[in-house]
Amino acid sequence: MTMLQAITFDLDDTLWDNHGVMARTEEGHYRWLLEAVDTWRAARQEATLGLSYEEGGLDYLQRRQQLAKEVPERRGDFTWLRLRALEAQLEEAGLHRSAALMWASAAMNEFHRLRVQVTPHPEAAGLLAALAERYQLAAITNGNIHLKRQPLAAYFPVAIAAGEILAPKPDPTPFLTALSRLNVAPECAMHVGDSWLEDVLPAQQLGMHAVWISQTEDQPLPPRVHRIAHIKQLPSVLEKL
Ligand SMILES: [Mg+2]
Predict the structure, then answer these.
(1) How far is it, in rounded angstroms, from Cα 25 to Cα 115?
(2) What's the pLDDT tens digit per position in 46-91?
(3) For this UniProt entry, which residues form the secretion signal (predicted)?
């Protein structure tokens, strides 16, 4: 039996339920932007931008999708896609370039403020604190939550935003980057996540142990893969290793 030395965690839908957070963040930061820009323009005796939440929001989405096609290596770098899309939209709507850059950046600050308002599962902090006494811990996410501002940041001295290193999971790079920073061999590490394709398979193929958080009970599991329904069951897997 190998000695487990490190555990890496997916974040969204693993340590908290992400349902609702993205929808609130998506709507909230864009509504904030439209209102803030119009207020700013009114104070300067300038006309409103004429962007509506519905049409502007659709255009914002289409610009992100188009950019991801044109610059495929950035497809998982959601903060970059959003910033560039907003800058272009605001500039085309009539803002000077410097104002467009400033307001796009301010909108993304609001985005990150809303995006970190996740509610970790009540067991998560206690579990991570206990695990940290025995294992090195890391976070590996495809999402663009602010890694230093998310509520469980203190437990993850190593945290990888896979999209920002241009290698979203299932690319093995973020896993190898985490293992290298932890200085741990794959067979001495475990990854925990809710996605079969983005968490479980790439980790298992690298030789890591993998824990799949899923309600699916009838799927056969390859070697080194364990299934639990909720993060709070992780200790029972570790006991049996
Ligand atoms: Mg996830």
Answers:
(1) 6
(2) 999 989 999 999 999 999 999 999 999 999 999 999 999 999 999 9
(3) none
Distance 50 CA to ligand 1 centre (A): 37
What the block records as the tokens of 43 is: 């104070």
Q: Assign 44 to helix, strand or coil.
A: coil
Instruction: Compute the distance from residue 97 Cα to the ligand 1 centre, in Å.
Output: 36
Domains along the sequence of the chain with CATH: 6-17+120-240 (3.40.50.1000), 21-115 (1.20.120)
Whether the predicted model's global pTM rises above the 0.85 cut: yes
CB distance 106 to 112 below 8 Å: no
Half-sphere exposure of 229 (CA within 13 A, CB side): 4
220 vs 191, 205, 217, CA distance in Å? 18, 16, 9
Average pLDDT of the residues in 100-121: 97
130 alpha carbon – ligand 1 mean position (Å)? 22
Residues whose CB is under 5 A from ligand 1 (ion)?
A: 10, 12-13, 194
Q: How far is the CA of 95 from the centre of ligand 1 (A)?
A: 37
